[in-house]
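tool=predict chain=A
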Amino acid sequence: MSYGRPSLPEQNIAERRTQKARVMARITNEALRQAYLDTVYRVIGWQQPIDIRIGQCHPPLDTLLSAHRVNEWAFITASNPQSRALPARDNARRNTELKRYLYEAGWCTADAVGFALEGDWPPEHSVLVLGMGREAALALARRWQQKAIVYGTIRQPAELVWID
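tool=predict ok
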């Protein structure tokens, strides 16, 4: 019986498991990234819906920003923390709390929803926050245990921003 270092075959097995875990994480992260890219982020709480796509500019959103005299925005949800599906009632409660927090903090918001163009991930109720900077949006996303947000500035393409 040996209580020291694992034998070479045991080390190889452990190394292979670690490598496999890294590969699986990379595949999972790439699939998640693609899912975010294949999502439409729709603002529904204004006069007309505004569809936001990552990597694209959105003149109707720029008009909205100008009307409110702000230059940046964030699209965030409290649904499905860490991209793990929760029951609808839990997501509804979390989003109500998020909206209450934003209202009490004085942010200008619009109801929104993110929905996948493909696959079976259910739509996520979300919020567009006008005037919220990147760092404030990241802090809010961390608070609600999100993996990423969509962020933008006037006349620039929408960005997918990962939470570190």
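Residues 23 and 29 are 10 Å apart (CA to CA). Residues 16-25 have pLDDT under 50 and may be disordered.
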